[in-house]
């Protein structure tokens, strides 16, 4: 099927939405974007992109632009909260032949994706109020009262998707995984190109350099963590935790970690993609990769299918095993938090590298 004359509305100008807008515009569709934010404002401090995410960006023609703004991560290290090494892995051993692993400011990635979708008009500060299936199209009403018919609507509006609520109801809401996370940037130049996490009892502290002397910091704990200041939550953690906390810049973001699990991703010719369809815990760092891959696979399925409905069925059949693999791995990692500390440290020390490589092995294959 060719995209000429196909009208598409993409809801959400994040990673999934901008990538899909680019691929569907290249397919030939007439694409529009609507985004709830009034401007190109980006939530999030930093982002880590594993090899399969960079491969997807390369397929989109955007990897070079992203790499120019990023730090190439060479190693991933895990230690206990006292700083004793448990695992040290060269990332090339996992992603060789797929792509490098890059870290950068989230806003920089967003700017590259925005530029990549520059031919697609974006309606800023708008939301979708209703979605109604008709015999030949989807009728959408926006918050400004505009009503339009589309051949395909994509809900790419994140973990708290309004499109998901409109087509599947409140019962399809995101659900907590059991952790509360804080994300921020800190000025800490004393680090190499290393993804480094320290794990304590029920809490973790991750640092990733993103350039210009900044590190992206992610720390989490149990759901009651909002009542506990970071210093108290991380009491007993060795350096560099106290130093990095001292260097934290303003703008700390916090909230419960949530996931989305649905029996299906579409109704009629309205389809959910990215976190709106399959958000998971961030412990695999695969959210952006899954969103980028969604965009590429959707365009491929539309090209191969005879109808949009057939393409959406093919898309879900092709994507669901991969996203479910990622979800299963995040659950396995989350369960490891409940292990007694000595046993967890022993497992990571003896089997950590092998477990890490195994968890990503299927993702080395193209989606």
Written account of the structure:
Strand 1, helix 1 and strand 2 form a beta-alpha-beta unit. It contains twelve helices and 19 strands. The longest helix has 28 residues, at 308-335. The chain is globular and about 60 Å long. The model has no long low-confidence stretch (mean pLDDT 94). The protein starts with 6 loop residues before the first strand and ends in a 7-residue tail after the last helix. The protein is an alpha/beta fold and 367 residues long. The strands form four sheets. Strands 6-5-14-15-16-13-17 form a seven-stranded mixed β-sheet. It has a domain at 7-49 and 61-72 and 106-175 and 259-337: FAD/NAD(P)-binding domain, CATH 3.50.50.60.
Helix tally equals 12
Q: Stretches where pLDDT falls below 50 for ≥5 residues? A: none
How do the strands of the widest beta sheet line up side by side? Answer: 6-5-14-15-16-13-17
CATH-defined topology of the domain at 7-49 and 61-72 and 106-175 and 259-337: FAD/NAD(P)-binding domain
Q: Give the tally of β-strands.
A: 19
